[in-house]
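Run log, item B.
One chain of 93 residues. Sequence copied directly from the ordering sheet:
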Amino acid sequence: MIGQSVLFESCDGELKGAALLVTDAATNEILRWEPLGNGVDDRGQSVPSWVMFIKPAEGDELFGYSGCTECGARTNVYYDLTRKKIYTEYNGH
C-alpha cells in the first residue's frame, strides 16, 4: 500500500483541497480517499489543510500523518485483515 498526501483542484477552479490517498501498490486500486480540512471560510465553505506530513509506521500501523511536526498530534492508519478495510485513529495532543 502507498499513502500519499494530495492537493487537488476541480476543472472550474471552485473546489480545492487536500486529502489522504491510499492505493494498492500492485493494482493501483484506491483503498481510501479522505479529504482533509480544518475550518470554514466567510462563504461557509470548508478551508483545506494545505500541508500534511506522512510519517513512518509506528507499531502495527501502516503509516501516520499529521498537519504539525511540533505538537505530537498524529493520525494512525491501520489495515484490518478481518474486514479487509483501512481505518484511522486520531492520537491527539
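Observations after the first pass:
- The chain has one domain: 2-91.
- The beta strands are 2-9, 16-23, 30-40, 46-48, 53-55, 63-66, 74-80, 85-91.
Flagged for discussion on Thursday.
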